[in-house]
């Protein structure tokens, strides 16, 4: 455990915000570039987009989301990254180790322009204690996933994953939507702030607890949340009225989620669904113990971090107990990937911690088997019209996908842009008669629109960590795998290597993500669609290899859906007869 002095030293090493960042205050936009080419420029803009005050949670401290997920290790490192990107040639590759540029080599035009590794530790030392020691010395940083890979686009990036999860829940448990159903949850931060809107998009009612009032206000300002109230009884009454009327509704309340759930139980309020997206993966920096105001808890963290951790873990155990009790009383319960269950099992010895499922095995895995997952893109021009043109393109390409059209319509109506205008939709491997996957087909269409001038500047395509084939996370994406390979981390490494070979423009590998150091390994990539034939060549390959990893990973585990997709889309699966 890092002590108070180590924590102070770590903060000092971050330094004062860069004057360059103060000048940018977000991504540069338009068609003029400061780098040697658009691939380098895309990296520079996406890094700055992560640190846009509209996008990141605490950009002055380089924190993008998830407690301490940073985009760069220090402000000096941030400045050095920008300098390197500006001078990076079209046949060079920049290496970034945990948020710090460490080397630059001549490679070739089709190689990635940037390779990133964040937070990775050798197995025996792969824990928070050793990580915090190194972090305090300024030798490593926590990159989360899209923070350290410069792929975060704000709450607009996670919204569809949350929407898809709740839509599948509604199909399985209810009559296809959440009308008349109440969802209670915790967390309204950068990732968790998508929850209320995802519920109301599915026509449900949401009550969300959040300890930081400014986060509630931010979700109100960006229309992810409808109302804020200060009294839980009033929140429950408004939610009950909305549910009875079958009207979508969301309300935020400033309180600890544990206090909210325990009070609900005491008053006999049983929701239809209970989940949570607080930063339980990080008991020191992310999660808040009950019984303290935010200011009091922050003071305790500084003065006595060991006590803070102990009280956080005590609160997590109460949190788990409340969820299990509500489940026993009739609520549908699932964990939304924050490792609450894992923390309680590991630190409090609770073997019943996993008595309710994670969201991936419960609702998402059949989509993963077919390579379906988040495909997100950002308009480097900064012009919302460019995203609106891509919206038209994706619905024109896939006219028979009613769910996709409904999602795009909802996103246009209800999802506010943050920083660079961006969009996300879930596309899979499924290949057409020309052998193009859904993702490749759409990426090539975007590239043509850029080439023809219908989109004013290049589009950069990336994704998040809720992905089919690029993650090993036994308490989330790979929980309860059919063949018991939950913890096999070869797959994200193969994903990163394969996407390098395919020519992605940025490739990154990370430890930790949303479940904490030692609990996951995952990879990410970017492809810049600048209208060139080179971009088209890269898109054909990367948007085949990347979703294809989801198909082969699940085919190898013996999932019938994945084996069927491999057969239908002509994916080579050696030794298939053994599955």
The fraction of residues assigned to DSSP E strands is 5-15%
Q: Count helical runs.
A: 20
Mean pLDDT: 94
Q: What's the overall geometry?
A: globular
Unreliable stretches (pLDDT < 50, length at least 5) are 1-8
The total count of strands amounts to 17
What is the end-to-end distance?
A: 44 Å
CA-based gyration radius: 22 Å
User: Which range best describes the helical content: under 10%, 10-25%, 25-40%, 40-55%, 55-70% or over 70%?
Assistant: 40-55%
Summing up helix and strand content along with how strands pair, one would put the structural category as alpha/beta
Largest sheet: 9 strands, mixed
Summarize it.
With 579 residues, this protein is of the alpha/beta class.
Report what the structure shows:
This protein is 44% helix and 14% strand. It is α/β, with parallel strands linked by helices and 579 residues long. Helix 10 runs parallel beside helix 12 and helix 19 runs antiparallel to helix 20. The longest helix is centred in the middle third of the chain and has 24 residues. The protein is globular and about 65 Å long.
What keywords describe this structure?
579 residues, alpha/beta, six-stranded parallel β-sheet, 20 helices, globular, disordered N terminus
Fold blueprint:
Layout: H1 4-14, H2 19-24, H3 38-50, E1 63-65, E2 69-70, H4 75-87, E3 92-97, E4 100-106, E5 114-118, H5 128-136, H6 155-173, E6 182-186, H7 195-201, E7 205-210, H8 213-221, E8 227-229, H9 232-245, E9 249-254, H10 257-266, E10 273-274, H11 294-303, H12 305-328, E11 332-333, H13 340-348, H14 359-369, E12 373-379, H15 384-397, H16 402-414, E13 422-427, H17 438-451, E14 459-462, E15 471-472, H18 490-502, E16 506-511, E17 521-529, H19 533-556, H20 560-568
Parallel strand pairs: 3-5, 5-16, 6-7, 6-10, 7-9, 8-9, 10-11
Antiparallel strand pairs: 1-2, 3-4, 12-13, 12-14, 14-17, 15-17, 16-17
């Amino acid at each position: 455990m890092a002590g108070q002095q180590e924590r102070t030293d770590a903060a000092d090493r971050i330094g004062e915000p860069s004057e360059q960042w103060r000048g940018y205050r977000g991504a540069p936009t338009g068609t003029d570039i400061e780098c040697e080419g658009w691939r380098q420029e895309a990296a520079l803009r996406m890094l700055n987009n992560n640190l846009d005050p509209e996008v990141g949670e605490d950009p002055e401290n380089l924190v993008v989301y998830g407690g301490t997920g940073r985009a760069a290790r220090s402000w000096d490192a941030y400045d050095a990254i920008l300098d390197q990107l500006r001078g990076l040639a079209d046949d060079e590759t920049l290496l970034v180790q945990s948020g710090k540029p460490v080397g630059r080599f001549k490679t070739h035009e089709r190689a990635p322009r940037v390779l990133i590794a964040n937070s990775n530790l050798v197995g025996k030392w792969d824990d928070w204690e050793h990580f915090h020691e190194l972090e305090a010395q300024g030798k490593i940083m926590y990159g989360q996933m899209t923070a350290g890979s410069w792929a975060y686009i704000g709450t607009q990036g996670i919204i569809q994953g949350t929407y898809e999860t709740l839509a599948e829940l509604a199909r399985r448990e209810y009559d296809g939507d959440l009308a008349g159903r109440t969802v209670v949850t915790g967390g309204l931060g950068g990732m968790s702030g998508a929850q209320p809107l995802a519920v109301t998009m599915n026509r449900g009612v949401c009550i969300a607890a959040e300890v930081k009032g400014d986060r509630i206000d931010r979700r109100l300002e960006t229309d992810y949340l409808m109302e804020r109230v200060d009294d839980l009884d009033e929140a429950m009454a408004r939610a009950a009225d909305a549910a009875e009327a079958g009207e979508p509704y969301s309300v935020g309340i400033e309180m600890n989620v544990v206090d909210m759930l325990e009070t609900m139980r005491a008053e006999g309020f049983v929701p239809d669904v209970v989940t949570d997206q607080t930063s339980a993966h990080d008991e020191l920096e992310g999660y808040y113990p009950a019984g303290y105001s935010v200011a009091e808890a922050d003071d305790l963290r500084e003065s006595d971090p060991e006590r803070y951790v102990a009280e956080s873990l005590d609160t997590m155990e109460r949190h788990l107990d409340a969820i299990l009790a509500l489940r026993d009383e009739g609520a549908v319960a699932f964990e939304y990937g924050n490792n609450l269950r894992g923390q309680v099992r590991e630190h409090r010895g609770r073997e019943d911690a996993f008595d309710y499922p994670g969201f991936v095995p419960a609702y998402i895995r059949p989509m993963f088997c077919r390579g379906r997952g988040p495909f997100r893109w950002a308009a480097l021009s900064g012009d919302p019209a460019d995203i609106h043109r891509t919206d038209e393109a994706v619905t024109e390409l896939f006219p028979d996908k009613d769910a996709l059209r409904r999602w795009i319509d909802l996103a246009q109506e209800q999802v506010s842009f943050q920083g660079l205008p961006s969009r996300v939709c879930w596309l899979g491997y499924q290949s057409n008669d020309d052998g193009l996957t859904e993702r490749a087909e759409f990426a090539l269409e975007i590239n043509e629109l850029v080439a023809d001038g219908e989109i004013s500047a290049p589009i950069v395509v990336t994704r998040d960590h809720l992905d089919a084939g690029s993650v090993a996370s036994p308490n989330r994406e790979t929980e309860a795998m059919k063949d018991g390979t939950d913890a096999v981390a070869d797959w994200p490494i193969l994903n990163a290597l394969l996407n390098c070979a395919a020519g992605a423009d940025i490739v990154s590998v990370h430890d930790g993500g949303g479940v904490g150091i030692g609990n996951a390994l995952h990879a990410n990539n970017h492809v810049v669609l600048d209208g060139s034939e080179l971009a088209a060549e890269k898109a054909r390959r990367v948007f085949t290899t990347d979703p294809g990893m989801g198909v082969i990973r699940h085919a190898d585990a013996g999932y019938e859906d994945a084996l069927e997709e491999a057969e239908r889309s002509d994916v080579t699966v050696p030794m298939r007869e053994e599955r």
